[in-house]
Amino acid sequence: MGKKKSNKLNLIICGVAFIIMVIVLFSEGIENVIGALLKLNPLFLVLAVACMVLYWLGEGIGLHLAAKSLEPKTRFRDSFLVTMIGQYFNCITPFASGGQPMQIYTYYKKGMPLGSAMTALLSRFIVYQFTLTLYSVVFLICRLSMFTEGNLKPLTLLVIVGFIINTFVIVLLFMLAFFRAATTKLAHGIVKLLAKIKIIKDPADKLEYIDKELETYYENFRFIKSQPVMILKMFLVTVVQLFCYFSITFVIYIGFDIPHDTDFFTIIACQAFVLMISSFVPLPGAMGAAEGSYAAFFKGIFGDYYTGVSTFIWRFLTFYMPILVGIVINLRMTRKGVDLNNAEEHLKKEETQV
Question: How confident is the model at residue 351 (pLDDT cuts 50, 70, 90)?
Answer without folding.
Answer: low
